Amino acid sequence: MHNVIVTGGSRGLGLAICRAVAAAGYRVIALARSGTEELAAASRAAVDSGHGTIDFRACDLSDLGAIAPLVKTLCADFGPLYGLVNNAGIGTSGLLSTMRDQDIQRLIQLNTVSPILLSKYVVRSMMRQRAGRIINIASIVAHTGYSGLSVYGATKASLLGFTHSLAREMGPLGITVNALAPGFIATEMTRELDESQRQQIARRSALKRMAEPVDVARSVEFLLGDGGRNITGTTLAIDAGNTA
Asked: b or e along 164-181 (b: 16 or more beta carbons within 10 Å of the residue's beta carbon)?
C-alpha cells in the first residue's frame, strides 16, 4: 500500500482529500496541528471500508526546524513515501498597506517555505524508490488576483513556479510534480465571503456554480494514480470555469 502525506488534513479541503485518497486504496498520513473528530471518523470509516487507511500525525509546519525530523520519523514508522499533497496553508486577507508585518511573514512561511522544505525531505525517499507524486495546492488567485489577497496570491504563485521547476528536476527519476488551482470553494478559508460575493463568483463561472472540496480531492486521486503517470509540471484549475 502506497504512503501518501496530506498536510492540513484534519478539516476542510485537506479532509476531503484524505477521504478520497484513502478510498482509492492508499495509506494516508494526515498532518495537522491537532486532530478533529471529523478526521477520526474518516479514519474509522476507512478501516471499515477495507480499502485504504488514514493515520494522523500532529505537527506544526510553521516550525521549520521540525520538518526534517518529522519526515525521518514518518519514513521509520511507515516506510517509503510515495505521495505528498502540500495542502496546508492559511488564507489571511487584508490590504497590503495595512497588513501587519508578522501576518505577512506568517503567510509566506506557512504557505511557501514550509511546503518547499517538506518537499525537499520527502523527495529524498521518492528518489530512492525512483517513483513518487507531489501535488501542490495553489489557487486561481495566483493567476487572477483578488482585492485583499495580494500576499496570499503571492504565496500561491510561488508554488506554481516551484512546481514547474521541480518537475524538471525530478522527471528523470520518475517523480511527477503538479499543482491544482482551486477557485473559491466552500471551506473554512472562504467563510468571510458574504452571500452576495458567493453569488457573484458563481455568476461569472462558466458552470454558474462554485466548485466543491470533493472536486479537488478527485483530481488529487487522479494525479496519484495511473492516469497521472505522464502528467507533470502542469497546473489544473478547478473553479467551475471561473477562469475560462
From this structure: bebbeebeeeebbbbbbb
Lookup: cell for 130: 525512483
Rounded-to-integer distance, Cα 225 and Cα 244, Å: 26
pLDDT 10s digits, 139-164:
998 888 878 889 999 999 999 999 99
Cα–Cα distance, 48 to 93 (Å, whole number): 40
Structure pTM?
Answer: 0.94
Residue 152 catalytic? yes
Distance of CA 1 to the CA centre of its chain: 21
Separation in Å, CA 134 to CA 67, 78, 167: 16, 18, 9
Alpha-carbon distance of 236 to 139, in angstroms, equals 10
Where does residue 25 rank: exposed (0-12), middle (13-18), buried (19+ CB within 10 A)?
middle
Cα–Cα distances (Å) from 213 to 12, 23, 143, 200, 203, in that order, read 7, 15, 20, 19, 19
Positions in the chain short of pLDDT 50: none
Alpha helices by DSSP H, the chain: 12-23, 37-49, 67-78, 101-108, 114-129, 141-144, 150-170, 195-203, 213-224
pLDDT of residue 187: 59
- Amino acid 235 reads T
pLDDT of 186: 65
Closest-CA residue to 223 (of 213, 212, 211, 235)? 235
pLDDT at 35: 94
The pLDDT of residue 92: 81
* Among the listed residues 49, 48, 52, the one whose alpha carbon sits nearest the alpha carbon of residue 30: 52
